[in-house]
Design brief:
Elements lengths: L1 H10 L3 H44 L4 H50 L11 H22 L8 H23 L5 H10 L1 H15 L8 H25 L1
Helix pairs in contact: 1-8, 2-3, 3-4, 3-5, 3-8, 4-5, 5-6, 5-7, 5-8, 7-8
Length: 241
């Protein structure tokens, strides 16, 4: 597993990977900015609407204090969005990965497994579905973990473990579906769920590093291509034994 992670990291700086890296980083940044702007507009509107409602309830004399309160809440909301971007990054990178899965996987297969048949490219609709599903599930789990952030960091542990499970599952299944049907890919992942989960911890650690985490789709997919190759080969040896 350490060897697979080292190979994935080493390949990320190769010329052919750099093009995919620029595309995935660019798309991730665009999504983060658009989400941030959308949430900021929503919170500012809510603060203004709340101010108007409170003023109609309390009278015109409360306009000054309420305006200050609305302004403070808008600033707090903006800062919250910046902090929240850290928690949104795994969900965003899961979605971004679905658009570049085949470019990354094919390059790894050609570089490290030239004597083996390359996988079959996933239909874009299937890859996008897997990415959207993982992203939405990640957001739901992270929202549930937020209250636990106040309990001695328990929320951070939940966040890390959930990220390891979700991203480990997604990247492994995307790599496996290049060689198996979706059902068989899920079965293979379940058969090696412990190994895939531990491998997911490597990806969770990577995605927790600010700025570097923009390259998570490249590392996660390259890493899981190696892991799939090794686990599938181990299953084949056991079958023939």
């Amino acid at each position: 597993m350490l060897d697979a992670a080292a190979k994935a990291l080493a390949q990320m700086v190769t010329p052919r990977f750099r093009t995919v890296l620029m595309k995935s980083v660019g798309l991730a940044l665009v999504l983060i900015v658009l989400i941030g702007i959308g949430l900021n507009r929503l919170f500012v509107w809510l603060a203004g609407a709340g101010e108007g409602w409170a003023e109609s309830l309390l009278g015109g004399g409360a306009h000054g204090p309420l305006a200050i309160l609305a302004w403070v809440l808008s600033i707090v909301a903006t800062l919250g969005i910046v902090v929240g971007a850290v928690f949104l990054m795994p969900a965003v990178t899961a979605l971004v990965a679905s658009f570049f899965v085949d470019d990354i996987a094919l390059e790894v297969e050609r570089s490290h497994y030239p004597n083996e048949p390359a996988g079959t490219a996933l239909p874009l609709a299937r890859a996008a579905f897997e990415g959207i599903k993982t992203a939405l599930l990640a957001v739901l789990i992270y929202l549930l973990a937020v209250p636990f952030l106040l309990l001695a960091g328990l929320g951070l542990v939940i966040f890390f473990l959930a990220t390891a499970f979700l991203l480990g599952r997604e990247y492994f299944e995307l790599a496996a579906m290049r060689f198996h049907s979706p059902a068989d890919a899920k079965l293979l992942r379940k058969r090696h769920h412990g190994t895939v989960f531990i491998a997911g911890m490597f990806i969770a650690a990577f995605v927790s590093i600010p700025i570097v985490n923009l390259a998570t789709p490249l590392f996660g997919m390259a890493f899981m291509v190696h892991m799939h190759k090794r686990l599938a080969a181990a299953d084949e040896r056991r079958r023939l034994a």
